[in-house]
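CHAIN AND CONFORMATION:

***
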Amino acid sequence: MRVLITGATSGIGERLALRYAKQGYSVIACGRNQNKLDSLCNRFPAIETLSFDLTHYGEYPSLETEIDLLILNAGDCEYIDDALHFDAKKFERIININLIAIGYALEKWLHRIKRGGRVVLVSSSAGLLPLPRAEAYGASKAALTYLAQTLSIQLKPHGLCVSVVLPGFVDTPLTKKNTFDMPMLISTEEAASEIIHGIEKGKFEISFPRRFIFIMKVLKLLPLSAWQKLATRMTL
């Protein structure tokens, strides 16, 4: 079995690469930092690496062999702290890495997935609700979830399956930058276990922690006016 993982130099992506390598998969780890990719290879010499910037379409390498599993995990988060003075460049950066780059990867690699294989888009539970300061991040992840839903319909006749991952808070270098409380925070090892288990079960939606996701989905049922009042208190 052959798996390609983007954003494999840290966080969930790194943990997935190591877990799949331990299971005997042929792993192709993608990232921008060659030193971190080399560190992966030092731990598992069989891991292949591709070092390039996912936001640069022209840098995408072609795959010489077919793959069984494509995990598009790379992403970033920046917050819009002052919506009145909207930061368009920050918005552009996040949309590019979290969404546009996914389109690049799909064009370059989707046709290399074997029939019966699977593409996995790592989205976020942040896309379930309009959260304060998350205009860029939340919009990109909500769009990514929608993309996964449409792909699951379009790719089924071609023998390809789709999964979307909706994590809550995971202890990664990205979330370490957060200055607010992160309820039900889990480790990257726990997140990787949930993702791998969900893929093995053939799930479309892989969401965790379950209690956190349940609360988010219940809050999503509230009228927007009620949620606005609650969300406003979060910013005070």
Remarks:
- The chain has one domain: 2-235.
